[in-house]
Design a protein that fits this description.
Number of domains of chain A: 1
Structural class of chain A: mainly alpha
Number of strands of chain B: 5
Strand order of the largest sheet of chain A: 2-3
Low-confidence stretches of chain B: none
Shape of chain A: globular
Order of helices and strands of chain B: EEHEEHE
Order of helices and strands of chain A: HHHHHHHHHHHHHHHHEEEEEHHHHH
Mean pLDDT of chain B: 96
Number of strands of chain A: 5
Largest sheet of chain B: 5 strands, mixed
Helix content of chain A: 55-70%
CATH topology of chain B: Ubiquitin-like (UB roll)
Distance between the termini of chain B: 42 Å
CATH class of chain B: Alpha Beta
Number of helices of chain B: 2
Oligomer: heterodimer
Number of helices of chain A: 21
CATH superfamily of chain B: Phenol hydroxylase
Structural class of chain B: alpha+beta
CATH architecture of chain B: Roll
Strand content of chain B: 15-25%
Radius of gyration of chain B: 17 Å
Radius of gyration of chain A: 24 Å
Shape of chain B: globular
Chain lengths: 499, 120
C-alpha cells in the first residue's frame, strides 16, 4: 500500500503539479487573455497561494457546512420562521437582496470560472476555480434561504427574470457585466480586490447583522455559512494586488487606474445598501455613515497606507466619496419612494421615530435637506395623494443609476456632467462616472439603459404599466406600491391577529 | 485608447443612437431647486416640436405634480440648454433652439424655490 501523503505533499500534487509545460503548442494561444491589458507577469512561480486548500478537503469542508445550513433552513420552515421577523417591512430588504445581489453571486461564479481558466499561473487558476464554486454555492444557498419567504410574501417570485430587465436592477447587473467584459487582471482588481477585499464588508456585515437584529434566522445562518468562504476570497483579492504590483513596476499605473475605477463603481453600487441600512431595516444596526467610517475609512485607509510602498494611492475622488456618506441613503430612498409604483418591492415614509433616528445619525444633513421631503410626502399622503412621480428618469451612462446624486458642495443641486463622443452626447451622475466613460467610450456606448430601451419600444408597452406587468413580470398592486395597504401588510396583520 | 480590447479597432454598438427612436430625439428636463423630482426626466420628442408645445404639453407631464407648478410665470423662467443659457421663443422648435438627441434642458424659476423654500 502506498504511503499516505502528508498535507504539504498533497497540496503540492493537487495544485502546482497539475500544471504542465507546453512542448508542441504555443503557450500564448493557450492563454490568449494574458497580455492585452498591458500587465506584465515575469514569473508566475512567485504567486503565493493565499490559502492552502486542496479540492478533496474543500469538498469535505463545504459539505459539512452545507449539512448544518440546510438543517437550520428545515427548522426555520417547519417553525414558520418568517413570523419572527421584526416587521413585515424588513422582508423588502430581502427582495432587493434576492433580485439585486444574489444574481451577482452567479455572475461572480461565471467570472471566476473564466479567469480560473485563463490565468497562466496554476496557483491563481486553482484559487479562482475554488472561488467560482463558492460563488455558485452562495447563489444557491441564498435562493434556498429566501424560498421560504417566497411562500408568504410578494415580490420574490421572479427574481432572475427581473434581474435581467428591471430598471434599477440594471445597476448591479451592468456593474458585473463591466467587470466580466474586462480582461482577467482587471476582473480580479474589480471583483477580487476592490469588491471582495474592501467593499464586501459593507454589504455582508451590516446586512447579516441587520438580519440578526430583525429576527431573520435564515439569512443570518446563510451569512455565517458564507463567512469562511468570504475570508478566503479576501485573501485571494489581497494576493492578486500584491502579486501584480511586485511583478513589474509598469503594472502600478494600470492597477491604480483600475482601483480608481472600481472603487468609484463600487461606491455607486453600494448606494442601494446604504438605503437598505438606513431606511429598510426596522431595527437599525448602525447608520450607513457609521458603517462607511468603520469599514471603508478606517479599514480601507489602513490598507492603502500599506499599499503606498508600491506607489499606490487612495482611490481617485475619495474626497467626494467621504462627503457622499452623508447623502447617499437619503437620496436613494427618496428615489425609490417616489418610484414606488415601478419598484418590485414596497416603499414607505419612515416612522416618526425613524425620522428622529436619522436626524440623530446625520446631524449635519438630515434636517436640512431630507426631513422636509418626508414632511411633503406626509402632507400629500394625508390628502390621499401618495406621491408617485410621473415619467421616466434620466440615467447615468456609466453606473445606470438615475441622475439623482447632487453636487456634494451644493446638495440642493443635481450633479450634471456630460461628454460628446463621436457626435453623440452622453450624461453622467458624477465626475467619477464621467472619467470612466471617457477612458473607454467604446465600451460604455453599448450600455443597455432601461429608460432608453423602454423609449425605443424594446420592453413592450406602449404604456409603463405594460412594461411593468408584462416585460418585468411585476404583479401590479401586489408587488409594488406603498407598504400601507399592501397584501403583504394585510396578511401579516392576519397572522399576528391585529386589526 | 477608446477601449481596452483583445481585438484591434474594436468598436461598440451605440445602443441609443438617434436612428433607434423612430424619428424622435430624447430630450431631458430638470427643474432646479425642486428635488421633489429626484432626477431630471427623459422624453422622446419630435425635433420640430415648438417650445410653446414643450411648455404646454411636456412641462405639465414632467413637473405638474409639484405644488408650485401652477405658480410658474413662464415669461420669467430661465433656461439652460446643454449648460448654455438660452432665451427660447415660443415659436422656435427644439431643432432651431439647438436641441438635438440627448440634449438636456435645465429650468430655473426665480421666486419659486421649492416646498417651503427648501429646494424640494
Amino acid at each position: 500500500m502506498a504511503k499516505k501523503l502528508n498535507i504539504k505533499e498533497k497540496y503540492r500534487l493537487l495544485t502546482r503539479d497539475l500544471d504542465w509545460e507546453f512542448s508542441y503548442q504555443d503557450r500564448k494561444k493557450a492563454f490568449p487573455y494574458e497580455e492585452f491589458e498591458g500587465i506584465k507577469i515575469t514569473d508566475w512561480s512567485k504567486w503565493e497561494d493565499p490559502f492552502r486548500l486542496t479540492m478533496d478537503s474543500y469538498w469535505k469542508y463545504q459539505a459539512e457546512k452545507e449539512k448544518k445550513l440546510y438543517a437550520i433552513f428545515d427548522a426555520f420552515q417547519q417553525n414558520n420562521g418568517h413570523l419572527n421577523v421584526s416587521d413585515p417591512r424588513y422582508v423588502n430588504a430581502l427582495k432587493v437582496f434576492l433580485t439585486g445581489v444574489s444574481p451577482l453571486e452567479y455572475q461572480a461564479y461565471q467570472g471566476f470560472a473564466h479567469v480560473g481558466r485563463q490565468f497562466g499561473g496554476v496557483g491563481a487558476r486553482v484559487a479562482c476555480q475554488m472561488q467560482a464554486i463558492d460563488e455558485l454555492r452562495h447563489v444557491q444557498t441564498q435562493i434556498h434561504a429566501m424560498s421560504h419567504y417566497n411562500k408568504y410574501f410578494d415580490g420574490l417570485q421572479e427574481f432572475s427574470h427581473m434581474h435581467d430587465r428591471v430598471w434599477y436592477l440594471s445597476v448591479p447587473k451592468s456593474f458585473f457585466n463591466d467587470a466580466r467584459a474586462a480582461g482577467p487582471f482587471e476582473f480580479m482588481i474589480a471583483i477580487g480586490f476592490s469588491f471582495e477585499y474592501v467593499l464586501t464588508n459593507l454589504l455582508f456585515v451590516p446586512f447579516m447583522s441587520g438580519a440578526a437584529h430583525n429576527g431573520d434566522m435564515a439569512t443570518v445562518t446563510f451569512g455565517f455559512s458564507a463567512q469562511s468562504d468570504e475570508a478566503r476570497h479576501m485573501t485571494l483579492g489581497l494576493e492578486v494586488i500584491k502579486f501584480l504590483l511586485e511583478q513589474h513596476e509598469d503594472n502600478v499605473p494600470i492597477v491604480q487606474k483600475w482601483i480608481d475605477k472600481w472603487f468609484w463603481r463600487g461606491t455607486r453600487l453600494l448606494t442601494i445598501v446604504a438605503m437598505m441600512m438606513d431606511y429598510m431595516l426596522p431595527n437599525k444596526v448602525m447608520s450607513w455613515k457609521e458603517a462607511w467610517e468603520v469599514y471603508f475609512e478606517e479599514a480601507g485607509g489602513a490598507l492603502f497606507k500599506d499599499l503606498a510602498r508600491y506607489g499606490i494611492r487612495m482611490p481617485k475622488y475619495s474626497d467626494v466619496i467621504e462627503k457622499e456618506k452623508e447623502h447617499l441613503s437619503h437620496q436613494a430612498w427618496w428615489t425609490f419612494y417616489t418610484h414606488g409604483h415601478a419598484a418590485g418591492f414596497h416603499t414607505w415614509i419612515p416612522t416618526d421615530e425613524e425620522l428622529d433616528w436619522l436626524s440623530e445619525k446625520y446631524p449635519d444633513t438630515f434636517d436640512k435637506y431630507y426631513r422636509p421631503r418626508w414632511e411633503l410626502a406626509k402632507e400629500l399622503e394625508a390628502k390621499g395623494e401618495r406621491f408617485y412621480t410621473s415619467g421616466l428618469p434620466q440615467l447615468c451612462q456609466t453606473c445606470q443609476i438615475p441622475m439623482l446624486f447632487t453636487e456634494m458642495d451644493n446638495p440642493g443641486e443635481i450633479c450634471y456632467r456630460d461628454h460628446v463622443h463621436e457626435g453623440e452626447r452622453y450624461h453622467f451622475c458624477s465626475d467619477g462616472c464621467h472619467d470612466i466613460f471617457v477612458d473607454e467610450p467604446e465600451k460604455y456606448v453599448q450600455a443597455w439603459l432601461p429608460v432608453h430601451q423602454i423609449l425605443q419600444g424594446n420592453c413592450g408597452g406602449p404604456g409603463v404599466e405594460e412594461v411593468l406587468s408584462e416585460y418585468y413580470r411585476m404583479n401590479l398592486g401586489v408587488d409594488n406600491m406603498d407598504m400601507k395597504g399592501s397584501p403583504d401588510e394585510k396578511r401579516w396583520k392576519q397572522w399576528k391577529g391585529v386589526a | 485608447m477608446p477601449v481596452q480590447a483583445i481585438n484591434d479597432n474594436y468598436q461598440g454598438e451605440v445602443l441609443d443612437a438617434k436612428a433607434n427612436f423612430a424619428g424622435n430625439v430624447i430630450i431631458y428636463f430638470g427643474w432646479d431647486e425642486h428635488l421633489m423630482f429626484c432626477a431630471p426626466k427623459a422624453f422622446p420628442l419630435p425635433p420640430q416640436m415648438t417650445f410653446a408645445d414643450v411648455i404646454s404639453q411636456i412641462m405639465p407631464e414632467a413637473f405638474g405634480q409639484h405644488p408650485e407648478f401652477n405658480e410658474i410665470d413662464w415669461s420669467q423662467a430661465q433656461w439652460q440648454l446643454d449648460r448654455r443659457p438660452i432665451s427660447p421663443k415660443p415659436e422656435q422648435t427644439l431643432a432651431e433652439l439647438g436641441a438635438d438627441h440627448k440634449s438636456c434642458f435645465r429650468l430655473r424659476t426665480p421666486g419659486l424655490t421649492g416646498y417651503k423654500g427648501m429646494g424640494i
